[in-house]
Amino acid sequence: MTDRQKRAPRWRRRLFGNGLAIVGFAIIGFFLLFVTFAPFLAPYSPTHQSLRTTYVPPGTGVTYRGPDGELGLFVSPVTRSPVGGISVTEDEKYPVRLFVRGAEYEWAFGLIRSDLRLFGVDGPPNVRFHLLGTDEQGRDLFSRLVHGAWISLFIGLISVGIGVGVGVPFGAISGFLGGATDMIAQRLVDMLLAFPGILLAIVLVATFGTGLTNVMIAVGIASIPIYARLVRGSVLSVKNREYVEAARAMGKRGMPILFRHVLPNAIAPVIVQSSLQMAVAILFAAGLGFLGLGARPPQPEWGLMLARGREYLAVAPHVATFPGLAIVAVVLGFNLVGDALRDALDPRR
After folding, report:
1. Rounded distance between C-alpha atoms, residue 291 and residue 112, angstroms
2. Closest Cα to residue 93, out of 119, 117, 118, 64?
3. How far is 234 from 240, CA to CA, in rounded Å?
4. Do residues 28 and 337 make contact, with C-beta atoms less than 8 angstroms apart?
5. CB-based burial of residue 1 (10 Å sphere; 0-12 exposed, 13-18 middle, 19+ buried)?
6. What gap in Å lies between CA 150 and CA 35, rounded to an integer?
7. What is the rounded CA–CA span in Å between residue 327 and residue 305?
């Protein structure tokens, strides 16, 4: 058994033996389920409006006994009027059932067409079960949170991809070549690091315009100097090792040594940073959405939902609470996984 084979089970045991890492993976897996099965899990369209049911609190109209006293989950019609507030028609009760048929939807770029949903109300179309309540336009908050998960995670994934794709080669070449090349490259990195990441992203979005594409590019560019500086340090610590000198003695020169011998042995910090950077990217995207520089209405992006819910804290605190909790949960999940990866991949441990 080689040394590499002996080490692999050890870091895996350290990673999966960490209770906080398991919690982090569970949180991320939970939101990945939202991303994968969003139309099936969400009972309604995230953009469907109903001005007769605006900012209805969670649990309004829900009872656990039917019209004949039977046990179960039942919903009564709920309306809101400008004068009388919320009114519940308690003499009407309709059951909430699993695996119901609803409006048809398309998913996975049109490859999947279905009308089956996880749960819904067996009753008239105007009677709805709002698990987390509704927002200021009567849209189902749970459906918007579910559909918004893919936006936040996709922004994080693309942003980290841009940071890795540009920052890793840039930092690796800078550290490997050294000399004037390294000095000029690191001065460029210093210029980018002089701006706080969120401020740099705001400047880029304000320059190129709002929208999800520009948000992903801006957050990705803001992460490039972090990866460049991190990889440069790793390459500097690896490029003078014995196996690199042996490769040179065998006649190898230049970039083949960097990409075949140096970079593979300097990539572990990048894996850890990528997990942590996912959390940062999601926070940056939510912050830009909160400031009105990210996604545009009616897209169910969590930062935008949080910004809109802030205006209704006095009358409907749940509109801002649930998007805020979703952001906190997914960022916590990636931070826990990143910390566990750092501990598991640390050779000093």
Report:
1. 35
2. 64
3. 11
4. yes
5. exposed
6. 5
7. 11
Chain centre to alpha carbon of residue 196: 21
> What element of type H or E holds 48?
none
Ordered mean pLDDT values, 10 residues apiece, the chain (349 residues): 52 78 93 92 92 91 89 92 84 93 81 90 90 93 94 90 93 89 91 85 84 87 92 87 78 77 83 89 88 84 89 89 94 90 70
Give domain 3-36+146-345's CATH number out of 3.40.50.2000, 1.10.3720.10, 1.10.10.10, 3.30.450.40.
1.10.3720.10
- State how beta strands 78-81 and 85-88 pair: antiparallel
Sequence-ordered alpha helix ranges (H) in 57-178: 141-177
| Residue 321, SS3 per DSSP | helix
Query: In which residue are the tokens 């109300």 written?
Result: 121
Identify whether the C-beta of residue 290 lies closer than 8 Å to the C-beta of residue 304. Answer: yes
Distance CA 242, CA 264 (A): 15
